[in-house]
């Protein structure tokens, strides 16, 4: 597997680079190369590199192949015992180390049984009432209102709405196609009729911005995997553009190409936070709260749990069943003996 070039232009195998590395930086460069070879997202790349840097630093900057299972197990155990990280954070660190050893170094560490696991807490999600959703959305406007409405009306995750492309909105079938969602899976979800016209207006504004970029000699959007090589002009095609483009162009951190990326998710997160404060909602509301509310309100309306599972893109129905716990609380559940 020859995937990258150095200054000499000779293609190198990431595994060979890693095994022959003399410095931690060379190891990190090999990890980055392997991640990009396997088409991992830029977010996963940053997270994995961060954990691997920390792992090497905490072990005297030694080469990973020189460390035994005790060093690896001790690192993950310290995260749980001393760092008191969440189970998901420790799991991410574990995934980074498994990628380092299994994918890059070709080693199969036999130390997982000795790792002290962070305790995974079972918590019911924060859910808004229908009235609270109305109050929240009424404090928002324009583009941010539309994105928040898609979170609640279609059950999208934050990055799914941020990364939405023109070609994935079907006004004829009233559905949205989510591409490469969590677990790198595609799925279909509903497009609320109430959002059709606002969405068309947003897409028209994005089309005008795209036309200006083309006139200025830009307008080519980032394409996943090898599509840019397979279809060289597809990046300039309108259907591949983001529905919610950034307000300005920026340089791609991997290629250095200047292009217009999607809107920064922090814009929507900040707008939801402001709206929650203005609406006086006494709950810790985030963008994901609207997705939780979407699922809960569908189940309250009598939707089948398997249907909701498909709309949310959950791999296991057990994940969707957590919303049934929410249904068993409050006025919709069991009557308190005090009220009797």
Question: Can you tell me about this structure?
Answer:
By secondary structure, the protein is mainly alpha-helical. It has 15 helices and seven strands. The chain has helices at 14-19, 24-37, 42-57, 69-81, 87-104, 130-138, 142-154, 158-162, 196-215, 227-230, 265-279, 287-300, 305-312, 317-320, 322-327; strands at residues 4-5, 11-12, 169-170, 175-178, 187-190, 250-251, 258-259. Helix 3 (42-57) packs across helix 5, helix 6 crosses helix 11 (265-279) and helix 7 (142-154) packs across helix 12 (287-300). Residues 1-10 have low confidence and may be disordered.
**Structural class, from helix and strand content?**
mainly alpha
Using the alpha-carbon principal axes, give the shape: globular
Order of helices and strands: EEHHHHHHHHEEEHHEEHHHHH
| Count of DSSP H/I helices | 15
The description of the largest β-sheet is: 3 strands, antiparallel
Distance between the termini: 71 Å
- Give the neighbour order of strands across the main sheet: 3-4-5
Please mark out the parts with pLDDT under 50 across 5 or more consecutive residues, or reply none.
1-10
- What helical percentage do the residues reach? 40-55%
Beta-strand percentage range: 5-15%
The total of beta strands comes to: 7
The Rg value, from CA coordinates, equals 23 Å
Quick check: average pLDDT?
86
Sum up the structure in keywords.
two-stranded antiparallel sheet, 7 strands, mainly alpha, 340 residues
Summarize the structure.
The protein has 15 helices and seven strands. The chain has 340 residues and is mostly helical.
